[in-house]
Amino acid sequence: MIVDDHPVVRDGLRGMFHGVADIEVVAEAGDGHEALARARAERPDVILMDLRMPGLDGVGAIERLRAEHPEIRVVVLTTYDTGADVSQALAAGVAGYLLKDAPREELQAAVRTAAAGGRVLAQRITSQLMAGLGPRSATAPSPRELEVLRLIARGAANKEVARALLISETTVKTHLKHVFAKLGVDNRAAAVVAAMERRLI
């Protein structure tokens, strides 16, 4: 499903997938509210989601989708590459973050990767985020710390992580503190990006 408030953009994206044997555009939406309604009706495997839209914006829609349809994979497709936008999207649990200047082949590959359960980030986004990271520790996160990080990457809050792993929120925070130190980062979004880049999650 394609979600963007500009009809011309939706037309262009639909054209990029026209005739592709293994990808079918089953629905379109012009804002977050419409996206939620169409997702309930069509149950797409992957949603290409713009961030800046009237009414319910992309991040708000992603958070609702993750709660209602965790099986649907969302890939952000936007013109905005600021740290705040990327961090909010990653914290909401997206499967990918691409920019609208991505070539046709990259978009198609991103949809396939997301549908298969993988994650994808635009190279420019990865480079920007990694450039701001500090020196990494040689120590890799423990299996338990990676469990916490995987749940964080799916958009879970500390309370949800604690409930899922049957531990306290204080323990979750301790695990995250250790993860940040080992990956050389200082926030959740950067930890997810660093772990993805190192293929830890």
TrEMBL record:
The keyword Transcription applies. Residues 135-199 form the HTH luxR-type domain. The modification 4-aspartylphosphate is found at residue 50. This is Response regulator transcription factor. SMART domains: HTH_LUXR, REC. The keyword DNA-binding applies. InterPro entries: CheY-like_superfamily (IPR011006), NreC/VraR/RcsB-like_REC (IPR058245), Sig_transdc_resp-reg_receiver (IPR001789), Tscrpt_reg_LuxR_C (IPR000792), WalR-like (IPR039420). GO terms for biological process: phosphorelay signal transduction system; regulation of DNA-templated transcription. Keywords: DNA-binding, Phosphoprotein, Transcription, Transcription regulation. GO terms for molecular function: DNA binding. Residues 1-115 form the Response regulatory domain. It holds the Pfam family Response_reg. Gene3D superfamilies: 3.40.50.2300.
